[in-house]
Amino acid sequence: MSKIIKALTIAGSDSSGGAGIQADLKTFEEYGTYGFSALTTIVTMDPDNGWHHNVYPIDAAIVAEQLKTVFAGGPVDAMKTGMLGSVDIVKVAEKAIKENLQTNVVIDPVMVCKGEDEVLNPESANAIRDLLLPLATVATPNLFEAGVLSGLGKLTSIDEMKEAARLIHALGTQNVVVKGGKALGGDLAIDVFFDGSEYTVLETAKIEPAYNHGAGCTFAAAITGGLANGLSVHDAVVKAKDFVSAAIRSGYAFNQYVGPVFHGGYRLER
Ligand SMILES: Nc1ncnc2c1ncn2[C@@H]1O[C@H](COP(=O)(O)OP(=O)(O)O)[C@@H](O)[C@H]1O
Ligand SMILES: Cc1ncc(COP(=O)(O)O)c(C=O)c1O
Ligand SMILES: [Mg+2]
């Protein structure tokens, strides 16, 4: 057996299986990596109440214990964060990254689930901005999150996405991808990658129906899988865009409310 490649996610549980830690571990597997996890929150969706999301954060001390377990084997080849749930959990993630000299850190600054109100309180969003972005190899905000982190508010064009990427890079992350996804108008799903000097605009035709619940988590987990396998950040992002596009194409209607991506789509198309 060749060397085991290790990938870690610090994220919430999406009981419906498309996003969160479920998306991350399934994606890590597709990338041939061994997945570790530290669970931060449990999210449930209520079919009797318009698919309303309930978010239950886990005690930060228990998140810290999980990370102690994971890092007992030393740093991993790459890691990501997703929904963190409280300022204390953000601080636990920050401490673990610093103490373990962890590199290849993907920060997905989850503030919203599609179509839902903000799930993270503003304090947690500020903590991600101030404590985690300076530790990030790459940050992957969606259009809404990029508007919040950059302070620009609603973003409506590629130029505004580029400006947001520049401002978010200045917060300390080494690279940033602003995901336009379905949220940006037009026929294309456009993401803007910025490495601190050059912009790369990644675009695909918008896939319809847009079975994209979990697309953001899957995209960030795919970048993590690419980095763990030794790809450059640029190449990991480009491959992740292909990976998530295939996952959306293979998605399905779970019920009247939600259509998750299928994380094995990229493999099935080959
Ligand atoms: N309907 C779609 N067709 C093609 N790509 C999409 C579609 N919706 C989202 N994406 C892509 O999926 C990835 C995740 O973006 P997005 O859905 O905006 O993130 P989030 O899930 O965090 O809100 C991005 O690469 C985005 O461009
Ligand atoms: C636990 C968890 N993390 C993250 C997300 C965000 O998912 P997405 O990949 O669609 O941005 C969700 C959405 O439901 C979730 O339940
Ligand atoms: Mg997201």
Description of the structure:
Helix 1 (20-30) links the parallel strand 1 (6-14) and strand 2. This protein has a nine-stranded mixed beta sheet, with helices on both faces. It is built from nine helices and nine strands. Helix 1 (20-30) packs parallel to helix 7. The chain has helices at 20-30, 60-71, 87-99, 122-132, 143-150, 158-169, 215-228, 233-249, 265-268; strands at residues 6-14, 34-46, 52-57, 78-81, 105-107, 138-139, 175-179, 188-194, 199-205. It has one domain (6-258): UDP-N-acetylmuramoyl-L-alanine:D-glutamate ligase. 38% of the residues lie in helices and 21% in strands. Adenosine-5'-diphosphate is lined by residues 114, 142, 179-183, 189, 191, 204, 206-207, 210, 212, 215-216, 219, 241, 244-245, 248.
Question: What is shown here, in short?
Answer:
The chain contains nine helices and nine strands. The chain is an alpha/beta fold and 270 residues long.
Helix content: 25-40%
**DSSP helix count?**
9
Give the helices and strands as they follow along the chain.
Answer: EHEEHEHEHEHHEEEHHH
Please give the number of β-strands: 9
CATH topology: UDP-N-acetylmuramoyl-L-alanine:D-glutamate ligase
Bound molecules: adenosine-5'-diphosphate, pyridoxal-5'-phosphate, magnesium ion
Strand content: 15-25%
Q: What is the global morphology?
A: globular
Q: Give the strand order of the largest sheet, numbering strands 1, 2, ... along the chain.
A: 3-2-1-4-5-6-7-8-9
- N-to-C terminal Cα separation, in Å? 24 Å
InterPro entries: HMP/HMP-P_kinase_dom, PM/HMP-P_kinase-1, Ribokinase-like
Enzyme class: transferase
Family: Belongs to the ThiD family.
GO cellular component, one term: cytosol
